[in-house]
C-alpha cells in the first residue's frame, strides 16, 4: 500500500500545526506514536534554511566536560565544553583528560592555516591546451579573484591550486570565509569566477563542471592532510611525568610505548588518522554547537605526535588539518546550539578561531584519556561503570 503524502504549506510551512500534521501522517502510516519528537522549545519560525518539512525535534543528551584550561591565541582561560552524545563514559573520559592537562598548566592551541575550497574541473581537447589554460589562469588571477569576490563581503580568494591529469585541469579555489564554515559561500564565489573564465572562451575547452570530487566535500583525503580544508589547528602540551600515575594510573613510558603500537596499527590498516578517536570529541561538540555534522568526515582525521623528554616528561600534540567550524550562520543560531556556543563565548563574529582552538584541545584530552585507559587496563571497566556495557 502506498504511503500518504506528507502535507506542505506553500507560504506558512514552519509552524507547530504543520509539524503536528506531518507527525500525524507518519503516526497513522507507521502505527507508532511520535510523542517525544513533538516536544520542543525551538520556535519553528526560526528553522527556514536549516530543514525542510519540519516535523519535530530529535533530542540528544548533552553534558559539559571540563573545566578545560587553554592558552590559545583566541581561546584563553578555562572553559566548560558542551558535548552532545549517547555514548556513556565519553563526557567523563574527556573531563579526565582535561583534569590532567589542567594540572599540567594547560594546553596551547594554534590555528596555523585557514581556507575553504571548491575545485571545478575544465576538460580540454588535449593535454597541451589544458597546460596552456593553467598558465593563463595564473596570469589572470587578479581578474578571477575580483569576479569571485563580487558574491561575498566576507569571503576572500587566497589562491588557486592547480592539478592536472590527462586533458583535465582542476582548479582548487582556496577562500577565507570569516566566521562561517563557508561551503555555500565558496561554491557561489567559485561559480561566479568560473562564469567569468568561461566568458573568455578558453581555447580547446570541451567541458566544465563546478565540482568533480577534488574539493573532497564531506570526506577526507590526502590533499586535505597536506593543504588543509577549513581550519588547520594544533593543540599541544608537555605533561610532567609525576602527574600521570595519580590521575591516569599509568606512566609516561606506558603511553609512549602504546603510541608506537598505535602508529604501526594505523599504518598497517591504512587509516586516515593515527589517533584513537578524534571523531568522538569532534562529533559531540559539533552536535551541541550547531555545526554541520557531516563535516565530521573531514574534521575527525588528524595526527598525534608524542615525545618522551629526557627528564621523563611527556610532550603530546594533535594536529587537525581539516577542522570545519562556524560561529555564525547555519545551525549556530538555533536556540539550544546558540546557548552552547555562548557558554564558551564562541557565538558570532570573530569567534571561529576560538572555537577551533577549543575543539582541538578537547580532542587532545580525549586522546590522552583513552590511551591511558587502554594501558592501565581500565578501558572495559570504565564502560562497565558508566557506559553501555551495563546490564
UniProtKB/TrEMBL annotation:
Annotated GO biological process: coenzyme A metabolic process; isoprenoid biosynthetic process
Record-given protein name: hydroxymethylglutaryl-CoA reductase (NADPH)
EC identifiers of the protein: 1.1.1.34
Signal sequence residues: none
Keywords assigned: NADP, Oxidoreductase
Lineage: Bacteria, Pseudomonadati, Pseudomonadota, Gammaproteobacteria, Moraxellales
One GO MF term attached to the UniProt entry: hydroxymethylglutaryl-CoA reductase (NADPH) activity
Family: Belongs to the HMG-CoA reductase family.
Top EC category: oxidoreductase
PANTHER family: 3-HYDROXY-3-METHYLGLUTARYL-COENZYME A REDUCTASE (PTHR10572)
Alphabetical list of Pfam families matching this protein: HMG-CoA_red
Superkingdom classification of source: Bacteria
Amino acid at each position: 500500500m502506498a504511503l500518504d503524502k506528507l502535507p506542505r504549506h506553500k507560504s506558512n510551512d514552519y509552524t507547530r500545526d504543520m509539524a503536528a500534521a506531518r507527525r500525524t501522517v507518519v503516526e497513522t502510516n507507521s502505527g507508532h506514536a511520535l510523542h517525544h519528537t513533538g516536544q520542543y522549545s525551538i520556535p519553528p519560525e526560526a528553522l527556514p534554511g536549516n530543514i525542510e518539512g519540519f516535523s519535530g525535534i530529535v533530542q540528544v543528551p548533552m553534558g559539559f566536560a571540563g573545566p578545560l584550561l587553554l592558552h590559545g591565541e583566541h581561546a584563553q582561560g578555562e572553559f566548560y565544553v558542551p558535548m552532545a552524545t549517547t555514548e556513556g563514559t565519553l563526557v567523563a573520559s574527556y573531563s579526565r583528560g582535561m583534569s590532567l592537562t589542567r594540572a599540567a598548566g594547560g594546553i596551547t592551541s594554534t590555528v596555523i592555516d585557514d581556507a575553504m575550497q571548491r575545485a571545478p574541473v575544465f576538460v580540454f581537447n588535449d593535454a597541451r591546451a589544458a597546460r596552456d589554460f593553467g598558465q593563463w589562469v595564473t596570469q589572470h588571477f587578479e581578474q578571477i579573484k575580483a569576479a569571485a569576490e563580487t558574491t561575498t563581503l566576507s569571503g576572500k580568494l587566497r589562491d588557486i591550486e592547480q592539478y592536472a591529469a590527462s586533458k583535465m585541469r582542476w582548479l582548487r579555489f582556496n577562500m577565507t570565509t570569516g566566521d562561517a564554515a563557508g561551503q555555500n559561500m565558496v561554491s557561489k564565489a567559485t561559480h561566479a569566477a568560473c562564469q567569468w573564465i568561461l566568458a573568455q572562451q578558453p581555447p580547446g575547452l570541451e567541458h566544465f563542471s563546478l565540482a568533480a570530487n577534488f574539493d573532497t566535500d564531506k570526506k577526507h583525503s590526502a590533499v586535505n592532510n597536506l593543504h588543509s580544508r577549513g581550519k588547520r589547528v594544533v593543540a599541544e602540551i608537555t605533561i610532567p611525568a609525576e602527574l600521570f600515575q595519580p590521575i591516569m594510573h599509568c606512566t609516561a613510558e606506558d603511553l609512549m610505548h602504546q603510541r608506537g603500537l598505535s602508529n604501526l596499527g594505523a599504518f598497517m590498516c591504512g587509516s586516515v588518522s593515527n589517533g584513537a578517536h578524534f571523531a568522538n570529541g569532534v562529533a559531540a561538540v559539533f552536535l551541541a554547537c550547531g555545526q554541520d555534522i557531516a563535516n565530521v568526515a573531514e574534521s575527525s582525521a588528524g595526527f598525534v605526535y608524542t615525545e618522551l623528554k629526557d627528564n621523563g616528561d611527556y610532550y603530546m600534540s594533535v594536529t587537525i588539518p581539516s577542522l570545519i567550524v562556524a560561529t555564525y550562520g547555519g545551525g549556530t543560531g538555533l536556540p539550544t546550539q546558540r546557548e552552547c556556543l555562548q557558554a564558551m563565548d564562541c557565538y558570532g563574529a570573530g569567534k571561529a578561531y576560538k572555537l577551533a582552538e577549543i575543539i582541538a584541545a578537547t580532542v587532545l584530552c580525549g586522546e590522552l584519556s583513552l590511551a591511558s585507559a587502554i594501558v592501565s587496563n581500565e578501558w572495559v571497566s570504565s564502560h562497565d561503570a558508566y557506559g553501555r556495557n551495563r546490564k
